[in-house]
Amino acid sequence: MGFQENVYIPPLLWGKSGHLQTALYGKLGRVSSPHPSGIRKYLPMQDGATSTFDLFEPVGDHRTGDDITMVICPGIGNHSEKHYIRTFVDYAQKDGYRCAVLNHLGALPNIELTSPRMFTYGCTWEFAAMVGYIKRAYPQTQLIVVGFSLGGNIVCKFLGENSVNQERVLCCVSVCQGYSALRAQETFLQWDQFRRFYNFLMADNMKKIILSHRHSLFGGSSVKTIDADYSRLYTATSLMQIDDNIMRKFHGHSSLKEYYEKESCVHYIHNVNVPLLLVNSADDPLVHDSLLAIPRTLAAKKSNVIFALTLHGGHLGFFEGEVLFPQPLTWMDKVIVGYANAMCQWEKQKPPCQSSHFSEGACQEEES
């Protein structure tokens, strides 16, 4: 397909530590990140929520001459203003891609919620609304689907939920996701790789997001219910406690197990038939090695799936640089755009009736 091998070589002094890679991503996001200029779009949802995404037009033409849009879903509690998203968007724009970046519901500090609901681990409603808007606004465009961490779970679940969601999609790339929240649940309470500590930090960040929207989320509840929810939220030290006491209730799940089962892409990803690149790092402190059996097995069974596992990179790190200082652009950014370019070129060389924007009926019609 023209997708060349791209070996990841981490920075010499610290790049082989998944913790330092993850810490640098968590603290800085990226080094010297650019400021791409986009337009914020607001989409009303059926339940009264207001989804937002940022739209960035390409800087120059795509190498194939086609109209290609990357629809991007960030990690937990993230949005288009995060440094790693800005760096990636700027790089993709310069290669001729339009970029649409979902802002997770409740993640932007200056955007109020308009319904008692925020983003969850696997809710695809907002991402589906953004993709629908792009398809209507740009009827000739084809899509590259990209998901980071939690966003990887959402995009793979979205594509697998309904075959219609795969129409006009050239390929999908998922980076550093865990595939199954239910299987990850036990590993997040373990101390090896300091996962329990990372769990605490992420839970603390989720608390801040939830509390910043407390009036929208809990305003319609009774005083007794609000007090109970607040007390459980304040004392929570793990994501699982927050998910059980707050998050699962947004979609009416009766238990934490049901919530994790229904919102994990592991039950949908086998339905994805477009080219799919799944990227993980062996030293990612958030994703236990046992979870990687899921993409490994999938890639062995399905010819459209590539599972790329690097030795180093941490969680969404993948920094490059010779010795001490990392470069602004990461291996991850280059691999996603490189894979997208190869898929676009491959699509261009296929017979017209085999292209992603042709239906099966149109193929049969052309053959006859």
Short description:
It contains 13 helices and eight strands. It has 368 residues and is of the alpha/beta class.
- Give me the number of helical elements: 13
Largest sheet: 8 strands, mixed
Write down how many β-strands occur, each being a DSSP E stretch of 2 or more residues.
Answer: 8
Instruction: State the secondary-structure class.
Output: alpha/beta
Average pLDDT metric = 90
Shape: globular
Q: How would you spell out the order of helices and strands?
A: HEEEHEHEHEHHHHHHEHEHH
Beta-strand percentage? 5-15%
Give the helix proportion (percent range). 25-40%
How are the strands of the biggest sheet laid out side by side?
1-2-4-3-5-6-7-8
Distance N to C terminus = 28 Å
Domain AB hydrolase-1: 69-321
Main location: membrane
Family: Belongs to the AB hydrolase superfamily. AB hydrolase 4 family.
GO cellular component, one term: sperm plasma membrane
